[in-house]
Amino acid sequence: MGGFEEVPTGTCREMCPAGELALRRRQGRLHVLERGPPEQAVKEYSRPAAGKERSRPEELRPPPVLLATVRHLLGEAARWRPDVSAAEQCAFVTDRLRAVRLDLTVQRASGLPCAAVLERSLVYLLRAGHQLCGEPPARFDPHLHRAQVQECFAVLRRAYRDEEEDRAAAEPLFQALFLLYNLGTPDALWQILQLPHHIRASPELSTAQAVNLAYLERNFARFFRLARELPYLQSCALYPHVAEARRLALLTFSHGFSSKNCRYPLDRLAHLLATDNLKEAEALCQVQGLKILEGSIVFQKGSFKDSASLNHRPSCLLVGGKWGKTTLYEFTEGICS
Questions:
Q1: Percent of all residues in the chain with a pLDDT value above 70, rounded to a whole number
Q2: Which helix (H) or strand (E) holds 258?
Q3: pLDDT band at 1, cuts 50/70/90?
Q4: How deeply is 300 buried, as exposed, middle or buried, from its count of CB atoms within 10 A (0-12, 13-18, 19+)?
Q5: Cα radius of gyration rounded to whole Å, the chain
Q6: Interior CA angle at 164 toward 230 and 64, to 5°?
Q7: Distance, CA of 312 to CA of 94 (rounded, Å)
Q8: Are 192 and 179 in contact (CB under 8 A)?
Q9: Positive or negative, the Cα torsion across 143, 149, 152, 153?
Q10: What residues does 265 pair with on adjacent strands?
Q11: Can you tell me the distance from the alpha carbon of 328 to that of 123, in angstroms, rounded to the nearest whole number?
């Protein structure tokens, strides 16, 4: 006779369950970011598998402990260290954040306590996605990272729906981040349009919808102008789409200005596409097969290499230069619920 599966409630009060900590100590598997002093181990991610024993309450951390864990990861663990590369640090933090989400899922945590944990996780993931986008795939896998961001958005937005009466203070911001991260996607826009009016009409979502519309309309002058004006975190969410927007802009110009005698100033193009410098704008044109003569681009649709992929590296103008004099922990606590 079937029945409802009992949902476990976590009782572990530490960032890492005692059993796991003892095992990893014996095996010498404490990460350099955990060794201290003081020793601050954090539960690592373990993939659920068929036939695997269910997690016991003493192995699960309740939402308040998970929130404290995420704050530790964004504070102490995410600080710059000369002996740990940015890619290695990101791999450590994202693995531990993945374990945090799994603990939430197993306990079916919902509502504002769940949202507070996931909002902070997303701040880290979005920032890391921009900072490491120029790393080789062996050091930073953008596809795996994107999958984790999307998973985090899905669980967070579900937590928001669980609290229809008492909405999280930061929901408008994170709904805007969701739209920007899924720029140009009909399903993402449809989901945003189902939100209550006061959320849709918020300044954060109004701006995100304007960016999305400019992208869909291929209004690249407006798109990049709005991109320059976005705050730091929104810029991180948007940045994965910037390379494609630049490619589409060059393709459009190649058809619209296609002429042997027509010249378009390179410095004007660099400003329009919001590149960090003229050299970057020149490289964008060359990889697409466009010729540059005496500081101007010669657009010819026949020479455009539509299949060429543009290099994706961090941007100072659109993202990095917007980061103020603050720590990641302080920044996160200032914007999250």
A1: 96
A2: none
A3: very low
A4: middle
A5: 23
A6: 80
A7: 21
A8: yes
A9: negative
A10: 296
A11: 9
